[in-house]
Amino acid sequence: MFWSVYIAFIITLSITGSTATSSPGLNETKWLDSRRQADAWVSRMNLTEKAAIVTGSLTGTCIEYVAPVESVGFGGLCLQDGPAGIRLAHLASVFPAGVTISATWDRELMSQRGSAMAAEFRGKGAHVVLGPSAGPLGRSPLGGRNWESFSPDPFLTGVAMDQTIRAIQEGGVQGSAKHIIGNEQETQRKRTVVDGKQVEAISSNIDDCTLHELYLWPFADAVRAGVASVMCGYSRVNSTYSCDNKHLLVDILKGELGFDGYVVSDYMATMSGIDSASFGLDMNQPGPMLSDLTKTAWGDNLADAVHNNLFPEARLNDMVRRVLTPYLYLGQNTPDYPSVDPSSLYLTLENFGLLQPWMPTPAGRDVRGNHSALIRHMGAAGCVLLKNVNNTLPLKESDITNIGVFGDDAADVTSGLVNPDDGFSIGTLGIGGGSGGGRNSFIVSPLEAIKERAREKGGITVQYITNNTALSSGVPGALYPWPDICLVFLKTWETEGADRESLEADGDSTAVVENVASLCPRKTVVITHSGGANTMPWASNPNVVGIIAAHYPGQESGNAIVDVLFGDVNPSGRLPYITSNRTEDYGEQAQILNVTGPAATESWAWQSNFTEGLMIDYRHFDSNDIDPLYEFGYGLSYTTFELASELSVSVRSGPVSPYPGTVPTNSTLALGGNPNLWKTVVTCSSSVKNTGSLAGATVVQLYVSLPQDDVPSGTPVRVLRGFDKVFLDAGETKAVSFALTRRDLSYWDVEAQDWRIPRGEIGISLGFSSRDLRRRSTVKII
Ligand SMILES: *[C@@H]1O[C@H](CO)[C@@H](O)[C@H](O)[C@H]1NC(C)=O
Ligand SMILES: *[C@@H]1O[C@H](CO)[C@@H](O)[C@H](O)[C@H]1NC(C)=O
Ligand SMILES: *[C@@H]1O[C@H](CO)[C@@H](O)[C@H](O)[C@H]1NC(C)=O
Ligand SMILES: *[C@@H]1O[C@H](CO)[C@@H](O)[C@H](O)[C@H]1NC(C)=O
Ligand SMILES: *[C@@H]1O[C@H](CO)[C@@H](O)[C@H](O)[C@H]1NC(C)=O
Ligand SMILES: *[C@@H]1O[C@H](CO)[C@@H](O)[C@H](O)[C@H]1NC(C)=O
Ligand SMILES: *[C@@H]1O[C@H](CO)[C@@H](O)[C@H](O)[C@H]1NC(C)=O
Ligand SMILES: *[C@@H]1O[C@H](CO)[C@@H](O)[C@H](O)[C@H]1NC(C)=O
Ligand SMILES: *[C@@H]1O[C@H](CO)[C@@H](O)[C@H](O)[C@H]1NC(C)=O
Ligand SMILES: *[C@@H]1O[C@H](CO)[C@@H](O)[C@H](O)[C@H]1NC(C)=O
């Protein structure tokens, strides 16, 4: 009896693919071949041609462009925004935002999103995706662009960068990891001129340890994944503009991380002329001009500088080689690479407000394929179920005859299909604004999808009020009979160029929820469309029985949420950030710096000292014992899970040194840093069981606690270092295993300038969120 149960257990125990991809994302032989071919091309080009390749050209129709050099067969490069799909396009998809895909904690979906995006960029003739983004990482929850990136946790973001970049480049398109680095707020992100005085951009003053363990971490993953390009941002690091920062670009990115591709400037982020090329910048975009438009950067100037011995030709050759190698490696010089979509010209004009009524608007090439199904699937997978009293959800169609739908985010858009919201008008919000947004070819609103669902079922009334001004000013009338369930849709507008001023959802949302909840006692469910954390002052209102954070789902918004509400999809998203009722809980330092008054016009006023170091998001809450609203890693399901076996931990056999040692001399490419950092040192395993009666997925999370007595002060009490999304039928058990690399178990030793595994007991905890840790163990390596 015992043995048969045991054997049955073993049989159902299939190991899931949990360990991170550890091999470098480039085929070294092929890369070196491509590099040799690039060098051969370089040797055949004259100075003018070489300077042209590293300088953008305004002759193209893409947002950024490099002109062809016919003498060697280089076809030019079309670079397009952005991180959630090709932005300036007709008949392209708007994918879920970075934050949404990270909320899935699903490596496979991250990869599928990257592949689908690559297919669309390639289909439109673009060679470079200006994304994905890991900067901002999300130092402050108020950061206006956090949603474009993945998560304030560097490990989770690192995995998302890795999966996305590999998938994009396997699709034959170059990735551009952005923005290096410390691009953590939008306020004063660029140099401004106030009353005739030049005021420099915000300077992110980041210490060495924080740089390595937090902000640079996901860029190391990006380089490891073989990313073709890295984009430097607008702001300054330690008072030096990122695109002029030699320590960052040359010593750290190209030196320590072994990056062999090219550094490209953000759109007009080049601050100095030839100097920036000496400081490590390899490509100036969008054309031969500087940020202030008064001077020209590069192009013929660079050729002249070389000609006059003011700039070394070897460095120009290096720049050209860096630009050409990924182009050749990915086979972008083949004749079957699609040409740039002719509609691109008019869309770029439209973007700059230059499209005139008399101009043609030719239809774009339709590159959407069947991506709608994937987008719907990802949108549902990015939903995090935060509250579900008495299993109110999923809605049981048999019990429901009358659905109330409320809130300005429920309705169809009223201000157009490009970033269709300014946060004030009525209309659903599928993606944020700026270069990370997109042009929807359609968007399915929640109300539309709910009505469709009700029509299919028959016999269901759908009543709705989508005017927040009306909803917030009192209990609305005109409803009869009272709904069986009230769904309140809230939105939070976030955009490039501005930080959030509050964590509350828009449109007087608190009053809206409270009024609907009073009308709909114990039957109110709130759904948020937001790019990150929100305060939820109504979270413990007993009449609010359900809450779903649905993030920015892209064009299939309504269908995705209906799938979750009606139980076609069992929610399995987990929060990729922490939430709190109070903005102050995030810490005094990790706020948006907003210099006001006369000081704001001082040239050097904008200094943001990252004195909180590693203590952002959940690390800050956990290390300071602050109660969150919903913690990092949290999320409910329509079924239940438990860890079904002990946590077993084993150390690699043989002695392990505290430092990774010198880089092996036989490795030409040390992508992402010393290869020894990426070797597995500790393996952990356990198993997880679906204890409910519905199939579903959970995310098993592994946190590491370094011994506080052998690490610098300011080291968080625990950090995420492994996760596995596991799909389980009702009653099913699966094994999970985690391979922890040397990097996962080390801290950055500033004196040694190297990663070091601390002496003593390292804590390992396994569970279902950062605060729901079910198994603990320790391991001593040194
Ligand atoms: C790497 O590239 C080389 C040269 O293109 C090729 O022969 C080899 O099969 C590739 N290796 C792998 C593992 O794909
Ligand atoms: C460089 O080569 C191009 C042809 O590819 C030619 O038009 C141009 O004159 C050459 N420039 C110089 C300075 O030789
Ligand atoms: C910034 O300055 C600090 C303090 O001097 C130094 O530790 C750190 O390495 C610098 N970071 C960068 C990216 O230059
Ligand atoms: C979309 O089409 C591709 C082939 O064109 C297929 O491999 C894939 O399974 C389809 N995906 C969905 C979600 O239907
Ligand atoms: C929304 O409701 C307010 C208050 O009832 C009203 O003044 C306003 O005109 C309504 N807006 C729209 C777009 O219907
Ligand atoms: C910064 O201050 C200005 C001027 O007081 C204000 O208009 C702006 O909203 C503030 N920005 C943020 C993100 O709080
Ligand atoms: C949940 O169910 C319990 C037990 O039936 C009941 O006492 C409680 O009022 C219910 N809560 C809500 C919010 O309906
Ligand atoms: C940032 O640090 C610098 C140098 O230590 C100091 O002068 C400045 O006052 C600090 N800024 C803020 C806003 O704390
Ligand atoms: C959040 O705020 C609400 C309303 O002020 C309160 O009832 C609830 O307890 C708060 N929750 C937390 C975790 O602070
Ligand atoms: C480099 O040397 C190490 C140690 O001898 C070996 O394990 C590794 O495979 C070698 N790498 C290459 C690319 O030859």
Automatic annotation (TrEMBL):
Residue span(s) of domain Fibronectin type III-like: 698-770
GO terms (BP aspect): cellulose catabolic process
Functional description taken from the UniProt entry: Beta-glucosidases are one of a number of cellulolytic enzymes involved in the degradation of cellulosic biomass. Catalyzes the last step releasing glucose from the inhibitory cellobiose.
Any single Pfam family the record assigns to this protein: Fn3-like
Pathway: Glycan metabolism; cellulose degradation
Entry's EC annotation: 3.2.1.21
Top-level taxon of the source organism: Eukaryota
Family matches, as InterPro entries: Cellulose_deg_GH3, Fn3-like, GH, Glyco_hydro_3_C, Glyco_hydro_3_C_sf, Glyco_hydro_3_N, Glyco_hydro_3_N_sf, Ig-like_fold
Gene3D superfamilies: Glycoside hydrolase family 3 C-terminal domain, Glycoside hydrolase, family 3, N-terminal domain, Immunoglobulins
Catalytic activity entry: Hydrolysis of terminal, non-reducing beta-D-glucosyl residues with release of beta-D-glucose
Subcellular location: Secreted
Organism: Aspergillus sclerotialis
Signal peptide: 1-20
Record's GO cellular component terms: extracellular region
Keywords: Carbohydrate metabolism, Cellulose degradation, Glycoprotein, Glycosidase, Hydrolase, Polysaccharide degradation, Secreted, Signal
Family designation: Belongs to the glycosyl hydrolase 3 family.
Name of the top EC class for this enzyme: hydrolase
A GO term, aspect molecular function: beta-glucosidase activity
Protein name from the UniProt record: Probable beta-glucosidase G
